[in-house]
Design a protein that fits this description.
Elements: E1 26-33, H1 65-70, E2 75-82, E3 87-91, E4 96-98, H2 103-117, E5 121-126, E6 129-130, E7 132-136, E8 142-146, E9 148-149, E10 151-154, E11 170-173, E12 177-184, E13 189-198, E14 206-208, E15 216-218, E16 221-228, H3 239-243, H4 248-286, H5 310-336, H6 346-357, H7 359-372, H8 378-407, H9 415-442, H10 468-475, H11 477-495, H12 503-530, H13 537-545, H14 547-562, H15 568-594, H16 600-611
Parallel strand pairs: 12-16
Antiparallel strand pairs: 1-2, 1-5, 3-16, 4-15, 5-6, 5-9, 7-8, 10-11, 11-14, 12-13
Organism: Eptatretus burgeri
Protein name: Transmembrane 9 superfamily member
Membrane topology: Multi-pass membrane protein
Length: about 625
Amino acid sequence: MSLFPCFLLPSLTPLVSCSPCFTFCVLRGKLLIGCPPHLRSTAVCHCRFDFCQAPKTKSRPSENLGQVLFGERIEHSPYKIEFKKDVKCAKVCDVKVYNPASKEDEARLHFITQAIQLNYHNYWIIDNMPVTWCYDVEDGAKYCSTGFPVGCFVNDEVHAKDTCAINVRSSFYSSSPYFSVEYNQKVSRLILYASCELSTCGKAPLAIPSRLSSPLRVLYSYSVTFVENNTISWASRWDYILESMPHANIQWFSIINSLIIVLFLSGMVAMILLRTLHKDIARYNQVDDAQEEFGWKLVHGDVFRPPRRGMLLAVCVGSGTQTAIMVLITLFFACLGFLSPANRGALMTCAVVIWVLLGTPAGFVSAHLYKTFGGERWKLNILLTALLCPGVVFADFFLMNVMLRIEGSSAAVPFSTLLAVLALWFCVSLPLTFLGAYVGFKRKPMEQPVRTNQLPRQIPPQTVYTHALLAVVIGGILPFACIFIQLFFILNSIWSHQLYYMFGFLFLVFIILLITCSEATILLCYFQLCSEDYHWWWRSFLTSGFTAMYLLIYAMHYFATHLHLAGVASIFLYFGYTLIMAIIFFLLTGKLCGGGGGHTGMAVCGVCFQMANKDVWVRCR
C-alpha cells in the first residue's frame, strides 16, 4: 500500500488511501521516540537508544517548519503492520545482548535505564493517528495519552499507578508492545483507533538490574490485533482521545468567570462615563470662566505631550500590532479547523508565516506614531522596529537551541532551519517593515485633540493609591484572572504533551481579555487624569502589558507543582521558552488593550476633553 498525501478541509472526508479489498496493505508506522511527557524540549532521538532500527536506505520523512521549531522529529519504524492481519509476538530484529564486561554495553543499558527513570515515552504514528496509552482513572473513566512508556521504574516508596503495575525496586523494560488497531470497513478507511499496552509475550517482565552480573538478553517483539468497528466514522476518529481529556465543563467555568469580571468592569466604566464624568463636565460648563479649573481639566494643555522615550514606545506599539494581527488571523484559521491536531506543526507554521508577512503594519504604526511624537531620527526608528523585539525573541530561542545542542537533544533546530528563519526575517519581514515605515512617515501626524502648552505643568505629589507602579500592578490582575484557566491547558499542551483543540473557547477568552484590558485601562487612566498626572502614554501600555508578568509568575507556579525536571539544563530551557511567551504576550496585551498608539488611552483622553465645552472643542482620534 502507498499512502497518498492529501489536504484535509474541515468537515470533509479525504480520499480513500487503501481499499478494504486489499488484505495485504502494509502500514509503515512512523516512529517518534524519546520525547518526555513533561518537557518536550529535551527530546532524545530514536538513534540514541539501542532499539531496533529501520533500514537506512529509507529517506527521512518530511517535516514542516512548525514541527522542526517545536522539536518534533519523525523516523521510520522497523515494525511492519499488515492490514487486517493479526500478529503475536513477532520478532523485530536480532536479540541484543548486554555483556557486563563491556563498558559500551553498560553505557547503552544505563542510558535506557535513565530514560525509564525520567518517564520517557515512545511516540508512534500509524496512518496519521497517534498510538495512545489508555488506562482507567477515577469514576470508571478512561484516560488516553499519546505515546507509551519506554519502561517502568518503581521503588519501595512509590505505589503502582498509571504505567506501573509492580511495586518492586527495579526498572522494567517494555520491549514487547501490544497494539490494538480498530478500523471501519464500511467507509473504506484504515485506522480509527490505535492503542498500545505493555506485553511480556507470556514471560515475566524484563527487569533491568542496577548492575549487570550476567549477560542480559533483550528480544524486541510486537503484537497486533485488528478489530472491526463500523460505528465510528472517519471524521470522529480523534474523539476517543479528546473525550478522555478534561471536559468542556471546566472551559465553560472559565468563560463564566471571565464574563463576571467583564460585567464588573463594564459597570465601573459605565458609572464613570455616565455619572462621574457627566457630573464633572456639567460642573465645568456651569462655573464662571474666571474661576480656577480643577480635576482632570487642569491637564488639558499637557495631556497630549509626547512621552519620554517615545521611540521605544513607538517600536513596542508597532511590534505589538504585528503580533496582535498574527494572533487574530491564526486563531481564526484554528477555529475553522485548518490547524487541527491532525495537521502536525500547522499552528506554528501558520503563526510564523503570518508574522513574517505582517511587517508592513508594524512599520506603518511605529513610524506614524513616532512622527506624531515629533521624532526626527526616522532611520533608527525603522531599524529598531524591524530588529529589536524580533531580535530579543530570536536571541532567546538561539540560546535555548545551543543548550539543546549541548545536551544532545533531538529537539535542537538544525542550522539550515535557523538560516531559513533568518532568511524569512531579513529577506521578507525586514523589507516589508521598511515599506510600511515609508508610508507611515509620508502621512500627516495625528491631529492633537487639544493644543499642548510650551512649558510642562508641574505634577503634584501623588498618593500611594495613585502611584504609577501600584496602578500598573493592579491593572494586570483582572485580565490575568480571565485567562489563567486557559493558560493551564496551554501549558499542558506544550510541556505535558497533551492535545489542545478547543480553539473556539480560546478565541472567546481572547475577546474577553481584550475587553477586560481595555476597561481596566479606561478606569486607571481616568483616575490618573483626576490626580493631575498627564504621563498616561507609557502607563496605559504597561497597565495591560503587566499581565505578562502574572503569566511568568503562574508559569513558576506550574513549574513547581506540575513538572518534575531533572538537571539545570531542563530548568533553563523551561524558563527560556516561557520568557519568549511572556514577551509576545506583553506586546500583544500592551498594544491591543493599553493602546499606547492612540486606542484605549487616547480614546479616554479624547472623550473627556471633547465633552468638556471649555476653551476649545476637541476631537477623539
